[in-house]
Structures are given as structure tokens and as C-alpha cells.
Amino acid sequence: MTETMKRALLLSLPLLLLSACGGTAPPKPPAVVERASNADREAKRALRDGDLMVARNLFEQSLRLQQSLDNLPGVATASINLASVQHKMNNDEAALRLLDGVMEPGTPYPADLRAAAAFRKAVILVDGASKSAPAAVEAAEQRCGKSCEFTPGLYNLRARMALAAKDYAPAAGFAKSAADAAGDNKEELANARRNAAAAAHALEQPGQALEHYLAALELDKQLALPRRIAEDLEGVSRALEKLGRKDEAASYARRAAASRDAAGAGAR
Q1: Scanning 61, 97, 150, 182, which has the fewest C-beta atoms within 10 Å of its C-beta?
Q2: pLDDT at position 27, please?
Q3: Nearest C-alpha neighbor of 114 from the set 204, 122, 36
Q4: Spatial CA neighbour of 80 closest among 54, 53, 62
Q5: Neighbours of 104 (CB within 10 A)
């Protein structure tokens, strides 16, 4: 839990005075605070389960409750979470409105949550191959400063933009920087290895591509991310094909198809 999240929780709760007799249980938080907390918790559970409609409705409920309390950290957090769900549901216009609201000048949202909103906006625009993506990444980098929790993710966005522009050597460099900065962030490390693999494949380095795809596959299995696992398996298959290992390539291609089909069925 970040310091801002801690502040958000503290701001949403009244100051509790300890009774003289230490055996008395502290009073329950007000009903609206408890409802906001429950909505946020259930929304995250629905998101993990892939039930995007339920997650969106619950994050909307959490946002309204935080707004009723004028809990600015809670409002910003709920807005960013809701924007992420809207993006997953291909409602990017709604997602960007929410994120721009967090970054709106003059509103005293915490700086780290503004940075989180800027990073999420950059992700959405890079995903959509928007002409505004480079400017959004630069804006997120400015909010991040020399280093923040989004540094590896920003390097990965740079790598993806370089790959899209067919600038494969710079893409490999950004992917390496992302991996170096990732630390214990397995998701961004997996993204870095996948970006490095794509660059190596384009540079006719199938051995390196295979190594990176296998590393990404191991990480994505630990994270239990079916769509990423399918992508990694497909990458391994392509690298093995380039290396002339056709039987192994065909095996990985079948596994990729099975993983993708099963992931699609699970999402319905």
C-alpha cells in the first residue's frame, strides 16, 4: 500500500479516541466509508475474475461514494481504476475523460496519483497507436521525474513505440532499460522480455528472441495471465521456426492456440 493509499484510508475515517478501558473494541467506520471499501474490494475481485461489467459498476459506485466524502485521494484512485476497466472494455474516450479529470490543473489531487493517471493515459494512447502517444509518454515521464514506480513501464512504452516505428535497435535498448528498472515488478519485467524478444526477432536474432520469449512465458505463468501466455507461446513458436526446429515450433503453436481459445472462452 502506497503512502497516498494510506492517506486515502485515513482521510476517509474519523479520528478514533481510545477509551480508558483498553478492552473496548473500536467503533465501526461510518456506513458510507464501509460501503466504499466494500465496493472497491468487490470491484477488484470482479476484475481478477474477468467480469468487466460488474467491475465497472462497482468502481463507479466506489467513485460516487468517495466523491460524496470529498476524499480526493479516494476519488483519484477510483477514477484511475475505473479508467483501466473502461479501457479493457474498449471505452477509451470515457477512460481518458476520467484520467484527464485527475490531472486537471488546480485540483489538489496527490502528485503520485497524478503520475499514475498520466501513465495510464500513456498506456491507453500507445495501445491505440494514437498520434498523441509520444506526447502522453513524455508528459508521464515529466510527472514521474528521474525515477518512480512507473519507470519500467515507461521504458516499455518507449520500446513498444520504437517497435511500431520499426526502430528495432532502440526498441531493444528501451526493453533492456525496462528490465533493469523492473526490480520485483514481474509484470513489467515480462513486458520487457517480450519487447526484447520482438526486437531480436526483427533483427534476425532468433536465439535471443527464443530466450526472451521463454523468460516472459515463465513470468506470465507465475502471474497467471492467459492472454500473455498465449502471446509468449506464439513467440516461442516463431523463434523455433526460424531456428529450424519445426516439430517443437508446431507443438508450441498448438499450445498457443489452446491457451488463446481457452482464455477467450473464459472471458465469455
Answers
A1: 97
A2: 61
A3: 122
A4: 62
A5: 11
Question: Could you tell me if 7 and 73 are in contact, meaning their C-beta atoms sit under 8 angstroms apart?
Answer: yes
Q: Give the mean pLDDT per block of 10 residues along the chain (268 residues).
A: 46 38 58 88 89 96 95 96 96 97 93 97 97 97 94 98 98 98 97 98 98 98 94 98 98 96 67
Cell of 84: 483501466
Q: Nearest-CA neighbor of 240 among 248, 232, 251?
A: 248
CA distances for 115 relative to 88, 97, 140, 267, angstroms = 20, 16, 6, 31
Specify the pTM: 0.85
What pLDDT shows up at residue 33? 85
Q: Which residues contact 86 (CB under 8 A, 6 or more apart)?
A: 56, 92, 94, 95, 98
Q: Name the residue among 218, 239, 222, 231 with its Cα closest to residue 263.
A: 231
What DSSP assignment string belongs to 221-233? HHHT-HHHHHHHH
pLDDT of residue 235: 98
124 in Cβ contact with 96 (< 8 Å): yes
Q: With CA atoms as reference, report the closest residue to 82 among 169, 74, 265.
A: 74
